[in-house]
Hints:
This protein is of the alpha/beta class. It is built from nine helices and eight strands. A six-stranded parallel beta sheet has the order 4-3-2-5-6-7, sandwiched between helices. Helix 2 packs antiparallel against helix 4 (105-120), helix 4 runs parallel beside helix 6 and helix 7 (187-197) crosses helix 8 (211-219). The longest helix is centred in the first third of the chain and has 23 residues, at 24-46. The radius of gyration is 19 Å and the shape is globular. Its EC number is 3.1.3.77. Belongs to the HAD-like hydrolase superfamily. MasA/MtnC family. InterPro entries: Enolase-ppase_E1, ENOPH1_eukaryotes, HAD-like_sf, HAD-SF_hydro_IA, HAD_sf.
Amino acid sequence: MVVVSVPAEVTVILLDIEGTTTPIAFVKDVLFPYIKENVKEYLQTHWEEEECQQDVSLLRKQAEEDAHLDGAVPIPVASGSDLQQMIQAVVDNVYWQMSHDRKTTALKQLQGHMWKAAFMAGRMKAEFFADVVPAVRRWREAGMKVYIYSSGSVEAQKLLFGHSTEGDILELIDGHFDTKIGHKVESESYRKIADSIGCSTNNILFLTDVTVEASAAEEADVHVAVVVRPGNAGLTDDEKTYYNLITSFSELYLPST
Ligand SMILES: CSCCC(=O)C(=O)COP(=O)(O)O
Ligand SMILES: [Mg+2]
């Protein structure tokens, strides 16, 4: 087993979800199909509710920003549009965004609200790789803080950690960040996260499967390790040479343990 030493200055471990704590297959084969199968009915049932209207407004704003993109689906303004046509436009927009695996705050907010009912009713349980929960417990016993930074909304993150095959493990997480703080491929986001936690960027170790995210974090002076899991996208030879790679959280060595 290759061991990656965690620098002594690290006091915070920041975790990505998809491809890092959780198999991409769970997201692609369980979470996303649920949205595609249920989005139309969800919009029809919840349309009049404030939360749903806020989600639609955010999606419409995103659609306006996306208007220049190939195949983008516009969402008409409420007045003067037939309700069923409007709902269909939102459905088409969601399908289009998902077909490109967009990580927009608007899409992620709606998805989080939709997953709520399924998780709360016990119809869906989040999966974590077997090494994740034991490692997080060890890190916390060693005095580390553990935070999440995912494109999935904070609300969705809490659903996953609160309703997992390992039970409710939400208490193991000190805090959550999503794209409201900034996108994961922008280094400024990592500076803002450090500010929000109240530490320096070099006190953070970020674990992710995506090298553009690792590169943005590193530019902000955050320590990074790239997580290689079954089903993740492959890495180039240069990326394999450049980054510290781990295939399990148990490969991280904390000097204090
Ligand atoms: C609460 S995460 C649900 C999965 C998801 O929607 C997503 O976009 C995960 O992205 P990540 O940044 O964790 O790779
Ligand atoms: Mg990821």
